[in-house]
Amino acid sequence: MLPEDRLDALLTLRVETRRGHQSVNSIGAVAEPVDLQPLLFAADRVAVLRDEEPSEDFAARLEAMFLSRATYLRERDGIAPRPMNVCASVAPKRYRTVRFNTSGISQTATRSWR
Amino acid sequence: MADPGSVRPGRVDTTTWGIGNAGTGMTWPPALPFGLALERARALDQSALGMLYRRFMPVVYRYVLARVGAVQTAEDVTSETFIAVINGIGTMRAHDELTFAAWVLGIARNKVATHYRRLRTHPEAPQALPESEQPWAVAEEGDPLAIITARESWSEVVAGLNQLTEDQRAVILYRCVLGYSTEDVAQLLEKQPNAIRALQFRALASLARVLKIADRTPVPNESGHTTAQEGGKGNATRR
């Protein structure tokens, strides 16, 4: 097994252990090679941020800004609020198609969706 | 993706928001597949946008915080990222969770780069992080010794990360902070999993050397006694 594969397997094991997918015993069963320990320590130093959460106040403020921007864009572009269950009943029942015949003269036809 | 059935912190499965987002306490509505949420978000549907925001905002925040190292700056850059997200979501091509994550994190990456460019073009801007902006400053309680240790440690880590290449940084942050699997990181960065493993190895070796971790690591010598390993033994890093 290549060192990069061993390192990757050990990092994966750590992640899964943190998530509770592996028991502590299973970690003990996998010896961490001495030559990889500095790399694993470096990974641990970075992984501290894994548990960082944005403050609730910031999250709420940004969400309000995010959604109000969406409202503004929707109004600007004239997009109607969309119902949660879009189905054929809200689609136009008829549409127009433009076809070209061999002489290059277009023909317009109106067709029904159903 | 290696194991579609497994729950990964960086991703949403059909039942949870992802364990890595502890604190949100939200669940992804099983009745609304991710693809459908994306389709509705493109049409600026508030409910779908809200779901995507609550799922991805903590991910982006963690990524940005790891890159800039200061809470206030991380909030500013995260805000800029989400404004860009809403402006571009109508034309975004993502079709599933991973491609959406790649798109959002790509925007965050650009915003961080812009932030550092701004710092370079405005040298009068403070480079050192004010005390109140350090990540540990938000910890209102806790072991004082742990806070002091974190204080010494974190700015060192951010400085170390900033010495890596863009790809090396991305691999370390996606794997170690955001918790994506190697296969997912490969898709996010459009590389092969083997290339990601090699990149990860070089990146961590490089970071260990920059942080002088190897110098502090006791390793047994041939006689069984422990000695300090010389920096990054055998882990030469190509940048």
Describe the structure.
The complex is a heterodimer of chains A (114) and B (239). Chain A contains 4 helices and 2 strands, in the order ααααββ. Chain A has 114 residues and is of the alpha+beta class. In chain A, a hairpin with a 5-residue loop joins β1 and β2. The model of chain A is unreliable at 84-114 (pLDDT under 50). By secondary structure, chain B is mainly α. Chain B folds into 2 domains: 1-138, Orthogonal Bundle (Rna Polymerase Sigma Factor, Chain: A), CATH 1.10.1740.10; 143-239, Arc Repressor Mutant, subunit A. A two-stranded antiparallel sheet of chain B has the order 1-2. Chain B is globular. The two termini of chain B are 28 Å apart. The model of chain B is unreliable at 1-27 and 217-239 (pLDDT under 50). Chains A and B meet through α1, α3 and α4 of A and α2, α3, α5, α6 and α8 of B.
Walk me through the topology.
The complex is a heterodimer of chains A (114) and B (239).
Chain A: H1 3-19, H2 24-28, H3 37-47, H4 56-76, E1 94-100, E2 106-112
Antiparallel strand pairs in A: 1-2
Chain B: H1 34-42, H2 46-68, H3 71-88, H4 97-121, H5 144-162, H6 166-177, H7 182-188, H8 193-210, H9 213-216, E1 218-220, E2 226-228
Antiparallel strand pairs in B: 1-2
Helix pairs in contact in B: 1-2, 2-3, 2-4, 3-4, 6-8, 7-8
Notable traits:
heterodimer; A: 114 residues; alpha+beta; 2 domains; two-stranded antiparallel ribbon; disordered C terminus; B: mainly alpha; Rna Polymerase Sigma Factor, Chain: A; Arc Repressor Mutant, subunit A; 56% helix
